[in-house]
Amino acid sequence: MISVVIPLYNKEHTVLNCIHSVLNQSFTQFELLVIDDGSTDNSVNEVSKIADERIRIIHKANGGVSSARNFGIEVASFEFIAFLDADDSWAPNYLEEVVNLIHKNPNCCLYGVRQFQLSQKGEKFLSATIGDIPICFFHKTEYFEYARISILFHASAITINKQRLGSHHILFDTNLKRGEDLDFYFQIALVDDMIFLNKPLTYYNLDVEGSAMKSLCDIRYRLIGNISRYKCDMEKSLSVRTFFSEYILSCLPSLIRDKVSYKIIDELSSLIDVKTLPLSKRLFYYLPNFMKSLIFKLLKRQ
Fold first, then answer.
1. Residues in CB range of 133: below 8 A, 6 or more apart
2. CB 153 within 8 A of CB 112
């Protein structure tokens, strides 16, 4: 049995497609927890129209998607919990493939699959991945070596082991408004094993994500603004240090664009181990901040 957790906040136009993609799964032994995060539109009424005993609508005060996911983890009845955002959907054999993956690899904390990405125009793209390897097993920090190529994991395409997650005291950080999902994966990768099935079985709505990510967000509520929490892990592991050095560097142009203070940018830059960067990125690191911003703008126009 699997618990499916759908955080719901004002998604009346997409939530029915999302839920039907779960109800139409070839694997049918699941509970479906719809965590209403204080919706103010017609979302909950739309869900209430569906007559299926596997669905439970659970109401809570609005606290954000991380709060809703954490609450879903708390009330889930089963050991394995699959997350799905209310504007995304699954292929009919998604849960069946995940359950098979769990049976063959029972001792992982997180199980992920590849995604299709959907644009508003109906275009479908495959998410970035790591070549033709069908299954990738990551023993703790091994993940960070691959994450330099692609993050791999996505919120609507992961299943977690509730017991193992609890033993590490890991939850989604409710303080973060951007990057909370990445922070969740990084926390797990530092302490437990993860596995990735390189098969596209979920559908991710790019335009919904894009509209949210374009909005300005205070640096204090972004993962990059809290990246110093990984400083000790960076000092202990070369692969972790290499990944976060490149991750921080990749974020700097957008921070300059968003007019984050140069003091904060310089503090973040000080966490970068320049020796781990490839030559092209090392040269980029040494450019003045205004040049980083200019290059970022030119790349965005392409």
1. 198
2. yes
Could you state, in order of their start, the residue ranges of all structural domains in the chain?
2-214, 219-301
CATH topology of domain 2-214: Spore Coat Polysaccharide Biosynthesis Protein SpsA; Chain A (3.90.550)
> Distance (Å, rounded) from C-alpha 10 to C-alpha 115?
23
**Tens of pLDDT, residue by residue, the chain (302 residues):** 999 999 999 999 999 999 999 999 999 999 999 999 999 999 999 999 999 999 999 999 999 999 999 999 999 999 999 999 999 999 999 999 999 999 999 999 999 999 999 987 778 889 888 888 999 999 999 999 999 999 999 999 999 999 999 999 999 999 999 999 999 999 999 999 999 999 999 999 987 544 444 456 899 999 999 999 999 999 999 999 999 999 999 999 889 888 899 899 999 999 999 999 999 899 989 988 778 777 766 766 54
Question: Could you count the other beta carbons within 10 Å of the beta carbon of residue 290?
Answer: 9
Cβ contact 34:6 at 8 Å = yes
The total of other beta-carbon atoms located within 10 Å of residue 154's CB is 21
